[in-house]
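As the work plan foresaw, the team has encoded backbone shapes as discrete tokens. One protein thus recorded appears below exactly as we store it.

:::
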Amino acid sequence: MILMFIGLISLFLVFSDFLLTTVAITDRKLPSRWVAQAAWSLMKRLLPINAFSRIAVGPIVMASIAVFWVIGTALAWLLIFQGSERSVVLSDTRQPAGLLLDLGYVGKALSTLGGGNTKPGSAGWELVTVLVGVNGMIVLTLSVSFVLNTTQTVAAGRAFLTHLAARQELGGELTTELKHLADLVSSLNSVPHALYYSTPAPHLRLPEGLLRFTADWLEHKGNLKGVRTVLRDLPNFTDQPTSSDDVFLKRLAEWSSGFEFKRPN
């Protein structure tokens, strides 16, 4: 029963993180965001700093989140099934399947593959297996939409920077970009993992581009009115409203440096 209780708690935590990350707009520091940050830090130490790594690092961070969800969900259900010796039995002898076969059974249930040489030990565990299958279907479906939302945010950020560069070359005003900036920051709050995506093209790297935009705004306008209101909602960014614009720009530079794909000091 203790294993079953631990499994239920683990399942609640992992599934709550999954739902808050994929369908909720929240800036809370969720476990999946810690996993993403850890993967990002590790990749900066392991991968060579070249064009291919810049393209690969974002998808690798996203994959680490998926691995956390899949393994966390599978282990939680395994603990639940381990709460009873006869939750899963062999199809031919009806003897308890054991730890490894229980894990295989959970994996098949989550992936909705079915079959195999094991089966539920009772009608109650048959119903639990249905819940496992529904859980797996939800994770699969929402994960696809989450990845799509992230890549769309990355694309929107690069489009914003490209549009900004074009307007600056033509001598256009920056004021009209505030609405696009607000839309982008709102999207980044929903999927902050998009900030880990890099590119060989320096002018399309999103955190650095936001810093350049802010510095240009301060240079041309003389103050950061409006921009500070929008940018203070960036994920994991803190701002003191009473601080000067120069201090704000310095803090933004520190925030941006945390997403630079380079060797840590």
Q: What stands out?
A: The CA atoms of residues 69 and 196 lie 19 Å apart. Strands lie at 88-90, 118-120. The chain has nine helices and two strands. The chain has a mean pLDDT of 85.
